[in-house]
Amino acid sequence: MTNVNSVFDMVRELILELKDVEENDVTLETTIESLSLDSLDFVEMQVVIKKKISVVLVPESFANSNISTLRQLCEFIVEQLKPVAVPV
Q1: Number of other residues whose CB lies within 10 A of the CB of residue 86
Q2: Which residue ranges does the record assign to the Carrier domain (predicted)?
Q3: Could you tell me the pLDDT band of residue 69, with boundaries at 50, 70 and 90?
């Protein structure tokens, strides 16, 4: 089962590979803005998340969902994994 912590572990590892930041500086409360991610970093993140857990992140997701911290990003990803209820 994928939860916020497991998604965070994956996102954190990716950020540590992409950016020159200290491991302790990447927490659930870290703002995305403070990481200074560029467009290529976002593309890399999109590709990895799609490959590993089949969630598609589109730029509109950030604008429409008010995602500003890594916690909010991870919660958004976990929410996308929940099955949609089909009315009977």
Answers
A1: 5
A2: 5-81
A3: very high
C-alpha dihedral sign at 23, 25, 27, 31: negative
- List phi, psi (to 5°) of 31: -80, 145
- Domain assignments of the chain as residue spans, ordered by start: 4-81
Cα 52 to Cα 46: distance, rounded to the nearest angstrom: 10
Q: pLDDT digits over 10-36, tens only?
A: 999 999 998 989 999 999 999 988 998
Instruction: Give the CATH fold of the 4-81 domain.
Output: 1.10.1200
Q: Are 7 and 53 in contact (CB under 8 A)?
A: yes
Distance, CA of 8 to CA of 53 (rounded, Å): 12
Identify the three-state secondary structure at position 69: strand
